[in-house]
Amino acid sequence: MSSSSQFPLHHLNVVLIGYGHSGKTLHAPLIQSVSGLNLTHVVSSNEAKVKYDLPDIHVLKSAEEAFLLPEVDLVVIATPNDTHFELAKRALQAGKHVVVDKPFTSTTAEARELIELAKTQKKLLSVFHNRRWDSDFLTIKKLIETKELGELKQFESHFDRHRPNVKIRWKEQAARGGGILNDLGPHLIDQVLQLFGPPDSIQSDVETQRIGGEGNDYFHISMRYSKLRVILHSTSFASCETPRFVIHGTKASFVKYGLDTQEDSLKQGLLPKSIGFGRDSKDGTLSIINNGVETKKVIVSEVGDYANFYNEVKNSILNNSQNPVLPEQALAVIEILEQIN
Fold first, then answer.
1. Strand order in the sheet with 243-249
2. Domain of 262: which CATH number?
3. Is 333 within the bounds of a domain?
4. Same domain for 189 and 293?
5. For an engineered disulfide with 79, which of 18, 23, 74, 304 has Cβ 3.0 to 4.6 Å away?
6. What span, in angstroms and rounded, lies between the C-alpha atoms of 205 and 7?
């Protein structure tokens, strides 16, 4: 894959479509932190907001303007969920490489259409499943690979929050691809698929519990993998801290509290190259029982690295290396969401 930019082949010009929470907090700073990626344009209806943060960036009012720019190599789509398919399709048709924020699309049919179009256009298509680079997830992957837990029997992944009041925003409107299942579900599902592959069967309970709520705000998903049981859970009424991960195996158990810190760090204006970025403030605990005596061991968390996603996207385009998140993998997430919905 080659770049059409005015820069040498080790640079790519990037346009970011959307400057809401995801575009502003995650995509823009992560793109700018990667050497070889040149964020040149942002598509947004709020030029003042973009210029306040990024005074040297060109602000466009429509995506079509971005698609027509010959110097743009990569289009990043960070817009409401129900717009992902159409924008990605138009970007690919315009001959651009494309990164889509999660969830990939609203339906599996849309996802398959984009995958085939990207192959026809011979362009990279990737999905921003950034939580593959969470500190705690990287730690768990290592624990499983080293078999410190033995044969896994139960794996719980929680993303619980205290948000009992409904906010007026698209993420909480079911009609626009909102709801907590579409917001947090793709993160948890993608992580499990990376660890264990497709499940043998799925059971789910999804509900709207908040007064005045439109989109769902609770889910409890149970997946069967032979003898292993996987539970994915999220509530909006957690008034106390709940574990992020609870894992039981034949040799040991692992419990981890606290969320990955990278998003909060980015909100505070810290960048991936800042000292301590990606380091978890809470380590996990491994518990082992021998002859009725419990021994606990602190497991120091791996360093998280969201910027690695964009570094690998760059290398995939310029050096034909592995796409960090294959669209077929993102399609597998949508297939499960469709089963649940």
1. 201-207, 218-225, 228-234, 152-158, 243-249, 253-257, 284-290, 293-299
2. 3.30.360.10
3. no
4. yes
5. 18
6. 51
